[in-house]
Amino acid sequence: MTQHRRTRVLRNGIFAATAAGALILAGCSSSATPEESDGGEQAFSFTFATSNNLESPYQTLADLYMEENPDVTITTNPTPNDKYGETIRTQLQAGNASDVIQTTPGSGDARGLIGLADAGFLEPLGDTAASLVPEGSESLFEIDGKVYGQPLDFTIGSVVASFGNAGRMGITDFAWPESMDDLYAACDAAAATGGSLFALAGAAPPNTGLMAQAISATRVYAQDPDWNQQRLDGDTTFADSDGWKDTLQTIIDLNDGGCFQAGSEGGGFDAITNGLSGGTSIGGFIPSGAAIEIAKAAPPEAAFAVEPFPADGGAPYIMASSNYTLSINAASKAKDASAAFLEWMAEDAQQQKYYELSGELPVSAYKDMDLTGTIYEPVVDLLASGSYTSLPSNVWPNPSVYDALGVGVQGLLTGQKTIDQVLTEMDTAWDQ
């Protein structure tokens, strides 16, 4: 995946948050300033998802924008991630959504920009947003040639692990498991200390769904990268897929094997934040950049890294794609001010600041960066070899499929659903 028109990397700088080489993306030559209203002040609102009580990169950047533009007031609305998609859709339908909205590419998530734009809720964006769309993924950002979301990142959807936490738990010489046998042995070792290998927000469908996708990378997509297209063509179904059956069976086995913290089925996102920052869990199924936020609350020796979930007899494979975008509400009365903010977000300094704060890789030049010594070092070879696929939920046809997966995994954890029921419900949602 390459980026057109906006790539420039400086190898000798400092990628502050992750000690990687500094990234500078070619952008506008000067900072965009909103046109003043009659009162000399511009104001707009900004809603974004948050998964913990740590300060969001979006909040930090909004504050910085107001510092640089004293005549601008941004009202920020951080919204819990587990209800974010539902909340945004309700607000858009009611006509009281924010001017700027954090969205995701594609149509498979409740906040997916294609579904929202198709419903008339989003404003088409300009050339700057179009220039940031990764080549080959235009269908996740565009309708009839118009772009509705400005990409921000390149996210790894796998496991974030704290090697320091293993030491804090008394597990010496900890190495990330490369096989399922090694993984279950690590689960036993962590459980013996009163902790767990994984911290799971079992009551939050976005987290249970992400876990299932991370595991499906090696069970489904490593063997069949075109599986989603086959499902779209009607050549297969979730219920007929041995790979998806194996994925969900693995989750049941992890649960039965004591790999999650006690009470994981009722855990929220705070269970992950507390487990990883407090040293009672070693890893979690969270977006790669979340490690940076959690590291702020963890001791320096936490030593986070992005690791692939062990392949079951196959080659390692991960999920990786642009996963966060900014969009403008079509009903906004502050479109000029909102557009100026998005232009500012695309500039060199803000791009660099976003990556320092979020830890997410730059969508424009991640393949060219020296990631030695960063949280991404364990997956460098996988990125270089193309051993990854986009998050399936980005390309699924509607949010109900991902909802059925996330809620279905919750049912597997509590014993209220079977694998066949979950997969059948996903097929039903697909065909809606």
Automatic annotation (TrEMBL):
Residues 1-32 form the signal peptide. It holds the Pfam family SBP_bac_1. The keyword Transferase does not apply. InterPro entries: Bact_solute-bd_prot1 (IPR050490), SBP (IPR006059). The keyword Lipoprotein applies. Keywords: Cell membrane, Lipoprotein, Membrane, Palmitate, Signal. This is ABC transporter substrate-binding protein. The lineage of its organism: Bacteria, Bacillati, Actinomycetota, Actinomycetes, Micrococcales.
